[in-house]
Amino acid sequence: MVFDKNNLKNLAEKYGTPLYVYEGDLILQRYHELYNFIPWKKLQIYYAMKANYNIAILKLLEKEGANIDAVSPGDILMAMEAGFTKERILFTANKITNEEMHEVQKLGVLFNIGSISRLEKYGQSYPGSEVCIRFNPDVVAGENKNVATGGENSKFGIFLEKVDDVVNICNHHNLKVVGIHEHTGSGIPETVQMMQGMKNILNLITPKRFPDLRFVDFGGGFKVPYHPDEKRLDYHLFGKEVVTIFSEFCQSYGKELEMYFEPGKYLVAESGNLIVEVTEIKQNPGKVIIGTNSGFPQLIRPMFYGAYHHIINLSNPEGPLKEYDIVGNICESGDCFAVDRELPEIREGDFLVIQNAGAYCYSMGGVYNLRAMPAEVLMVDGKDQLVRKRLSNQELIKSIVDESC
Ligand code: LLP
Predict the structure, then answer these.
(1) Alpha-carbon separation of residue 404 from 83, 397, 398, 399 (angstroms)
(2) Distance in angstroms (rounded) separating the CA atoms of residues 117 and 35
(3) Burial of 19 (0-12, 13-18, 19+ CB in 10 A)
């Protein structure tokens, strides 16, 4: 769904650019959609807040009854700030320090442990606790190699073959395994790959190995289209298949378990727009370069992953099509949002909208070159609300100087 373009233009004028605008209604639509697609009574959605931790988005999902996939103590504190109780948060630990382990244990949040080494340390420190165990699903899939999480070269998850070591360690420390987890990758292009990861994990689980399970968590990775020609995956069919497989599994396990998913992109990617303003047009011998008042620290996916983000010209939508490179204001040649992109004629002062900017855009941002991150606006029910302001240059510098010793 695309925003009403007039709305975006008004918001750009009202709040200034660069500006992130999120469509809250679309986030809620995607959230409820998953419950329709996957008709399992005990389905729980854990929002992967790493995708976008804006507190207004967290509160929106909190009110709807979502849960949280957290990956750091900071994530947990932020989620709690937004109103999530400890019971609604799962902490997926990855290369954490002992200090972080103790901090999270004090907060009372359930650990999802993905390495033998951490499981040993956790068991020694907190015998008798409940845990979730993260296995590596042995499937390599994702939008690109940086976001494929399974397989033998991955730093994540315990190998399937180590299942009996896991059982022994847990027995030794009297750890009660209440959940089993896997996450295959992000933006998984085919549902059959997700399904394979799920089957591999379910094959491991027997009542003898894990008698105390409450849930199985199949991670995130639901893909959304980034290109206008890209088709949506059929999650309706996927959901039906998942329920068939899971209900057979639960029958053989002897108990109807909860099913968790941890989507990030699916819930928030499409809701986001980054509005930028054209500051300069440079005519090179072979191409026209469009300079904007943003850059890769504010939206890094094109530069970092070669990701495609659709761009529209808000100010001249009917102009004749021309080819452009759209670049940012950072002192690096790789600072580019799009190469050889056809767009309606661009003039200085035009507003461009970089779409699908709701997931892993603001949250992966920074202030390289010392420009503050854009403000963020959330639209719900047609009403806009500033949910995070942009620091002035003075405030930005003060925040850095204040942190200095
Ligand atoms: N669960 C776990 C354990 C994860 O590691 C992730 C994502 C998710 C759930 C949510 O995955 P999603 O549904 O959002 O695909 N920055 C990259 C994506 C990194 C994903 C990291 N982990 C990007 O911009 O494409």
Answers:
(1) 31, 11, 10, 9
(2) 36
(3) buried
pTM over 0.85: yes
CA distance 280 to 235: 43
Any bridge partners for residue 347, and if so which? none
Q: Which two structure tokens, joined as six digits, stand for 307? A: 């990701």
| Alpha-carbon span 19 to 9, nearest angstrom | 11
User: How far separated are the first and last CA of the chain, in Å rounded?
Assistant: 47
The 10s digit of each residue's pLDDT in 15-60 is 999 999 999 999 999 999 999 999 999 999 999 999 999 999 999 9
Rounded to whole angstroms, the Cα distance separating 149 from 308 reads 21
Is residue 34 within 6 Å of ligand 1 at its C-beta?
no
DSSP H helices in 23-162? 24-37, 55-64, 73-81, 98-107, 116-125
Mutation to probe ligand 1, out of 47, 75, 146, 262 (largest number of atoms < 8 A from CB) = 262
pLDDT digit string (tens) for 170-212? 999 999 999 999 998 888 888 888 888 899 999 999 999 999 9
H or E element in which residue 311 lies: strand 311-313
Distance CA 93, CA 260 (A): 17
Q: What domains are defined for the chain?
A: 24-267 (3.20.20.10), 269-397 (2.40.37.10)
Decide whether any atom of ligand 1 lies within 6 Å of the 181 Cβ: no
Which tokens go with 190?
């085919």
SS3 call for 313: strand
Give the angle 115-119-122 at the CA atoms, nearest 5°. Answer: 140
